[in-house]
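Bit of a strange request maybe. I'm writing a small parser for structure token strings and I need a real example to test against, not something I typed by hand. Could someone generate the tokens for this chain?
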Amino acid sequence: MRSNFQKLLVFSLLLPVLFLSTGASEVFAGFGITPPYVKNTSLTRNSTYEQQILLVRGETNIAQKAEIIVDAPEIADWIEVVEGDEIKMPKGVQKVPMTVRVKVPSNAEFKDYTGSIRIRTLPDDDQVAAGAVSISLGALVDIRLSVIDKKIKDFRVRRISAPDLNAGHKLLWMFFPGKIRFDMLIENTGNVDISPSKVEFRIFDRAGKVLLEETKNLGKIKEIAPYATESVVAELPTRLPANGYIARYKIYNGDDIKQEGDLSLNILPYGTLQLAGFGFFGLSIAHKISILLPVFALMIAGLYVWHARRKKKLEIV
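Reply from user aminoacidic:
Good idea to test on real output. This should exercise your parser:
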């Protein structure tokens, strides 16, 4: 009897809540966020950090909006919700992204900072009838940040690939190598701009037994901002003919190997793909000298002739 009485009491308390809405179909069954925090313990002065948070609701049969209030007095000027103070949640959409951007000023103290972001769901203005009452659900985003006096240079390799390429080709006495475009999706896990310092390939025959060529990237790889994830490309020359190969790669951060592994490499006959290979930059040192030496000789000869003529004019005067 006591158990039935307790159930009846709970139901009687919940019954008015269930009808505090514009209709049974507008009762918001649930609302949550993931992740429920903005956390970074390695920020530096002048750095920018972004955290995406998903707003997730149980009922999607009406349009809603999320009202955003930042409650972090000490760092209020640092925090920005990219989508604004109100985020639309259209009808039929269950998950809506919210991006929190943190910009650390140049004079920030080196210490820990805390705060929160309050989120409250409301019916969209166009959905609210005059005099209607609706239940408001909410969530709390925990903010925990640390500004430190230390540079951290690190990254994580999320994905790699090497698309097909044209074989190199010969022009007169010069050989222009093929260009391997090694694509890497890199997540900067440090607090300063960074890129892989070097990429090395050891290219084997199709069986992966006979080493045919060793090569490394030419030029600098594009840097990635702190906490960002971007695709970057390392360009490596190859003088191998058209065929299929196994490439064993190494991606470096300074002297440390961040990732290594094998991948298939397909080199197609020259001109098969509408992709440019290496130009002068990819020539061997001997071939570069063979081009530059005559150019320098002509420049020196031209300067000598110009100097001689100028000297002759001065003598006449």
